[in-house]
Fold:
Amino acid sequence: MTVNGGFRSAQWFGATGRTGMAHRSWMRGQGFTPEVFDGRPVIGIATTWSELAPCNVHLHRVAESVKRGVWQAGGFPLEFPAMALGETLLRPTAMLYRNLLAMEAEELMRANPLDGVVLLSGCDKTTPGLLMAAASVDLPAVMVTGGPMLNGKYQGTDVGSGTAVWRFEEDLVAGRMTQEECAIAEGCMARSNGHCMTMGTASTMASVAEALGMQLPYSATWPAVDARRYETAQRAGQVIVGLVRQSLRPSAIMTRAAFENAIRVNAAIGGSTNAVVHLLAIAGRLGVPLSLDDFDVLARDVPTLVNLQPNGQYLMEDFCYAGGLPAVMRELAGAGLLNTDAITVTGAGIGANVADAPCWNREVIKTTADPFQPAGTGTAVLRGNLAPGGAVIKQSASSPHLLKHRGRALVFDSPADYYAVSNDPDLAVDEDTVLVIRYCGPRGYPGMPEVSNVALPRKLLLRGVRDMVRICDGRMSGTAYGTVVLHVAPEAAAGGPLALVRNGDWIILDVPARTLTLEVSDRELAERRAGWQPPAPHASRGWTRLYCERVTQADSGADLDFLVGASGHEVPRESH
Ligand code: FES
Structure:
């Protein structure tokens, strides 16, 4: 971390002659006094602020609190923008750009005179993207997520962002809600700064970042508008200066033990399946051995402790007031389900961080002795001739009666193809049908969007059917629910067996046995494969072309193959 007796930044600001003048002079144009170049730690604050990423729009103000802390601790804070990924606006999907954010942030951290970084994220992809970047640079880093919105309120009840959208849509299609009521409801869901306040992907990844040890305790749950969110940010500014002085880096924090903690915490909070693909990608940057099967094995002993939507009743604000993630981790530690020695950004082990964490509401945060859902109901990993590379299903969001199911396939090559006929009263579908939605994987869509939980056919909704088996090589929003097999690998666009399924084929889903089987002979599949043609490329140039050519499959984290691993933080050669 130190260079010639100083910090990394000294190679810029401590230089003499023309070079040093150039580095300092233009910075002084911002009005900084010369003492900021006295060799103190320079702290970058990577902010994913943007008005096009509404969940992150307050991060500018969070950054101001971080700066206070950095100044207090004797550092020199410098805020810089990193690509803001707004889940709700970006097309075809924010996931197409997660690796681009990671690549951009990694290069900015390495190329600039930084000794440590504070990572400001919020919306779904910004948290894993920045963690991937920090892992590959391995400068001391602290994450500060932006916090969840306040609970949504509609007609006197709490409504969760994302989760309520799916229900409102079903109610609209089934005639239980009018378009006017939907317009009112949409204004009642997102009523403050912050990210989705269900246990969707943003809340999951914020919790996972805390469980990995990269956020300060309670960081995941303070609402975005709570004063303690800003207090935590200021504390993070103090902490990062200390981490630089101690040279405590992400590679020493995000160890295999930390990833095991993150996986178990994800199970305990009923977290998003998206954590699977993101954690695999982050681990890949660090060289930490982590496989898809780890998610099944490690989660099997973990009961769901948190009663939050979409699995349960409450929202992140309730989770915060009930005691937040430390109360959950204390329960896990008590049951021997937490690697308590795993070091965190506090400098202490995670067990010490949560040893005295209180719980104020056992309706929201249950105990391991009396859990919200029993152990074994978390994310399961499936394999079989339909998913040789694996697939995942969120059991707690599924209908129990569908976890063992045999049905005939009804196949669509895109969600659009399906929605073009989903309202047809003559569609050949019943509640036993298995809907197959394919070409939605990393290469296929491209970007592996959250389209897998297609709404049920209208004729079934009108009959009161609320769930059916769906299988897809894409992802599902963490706010969504349903018996949906996700992340099928290899994806159809890569020639996976999903591409060979035909209407009427029998498919067996057996979650207890962890299998997904297409009842078609190997010989027949070989014949079908001989006639299969890969889809035309999505783009002839630019990021989309690079992404499609180099993206790995979901079971490897959907990173770009040449971004796996780390390049460290060696100071590049002089620019002048
Ligand atoms: Fe940003 Fe849900 S849309 S967190």
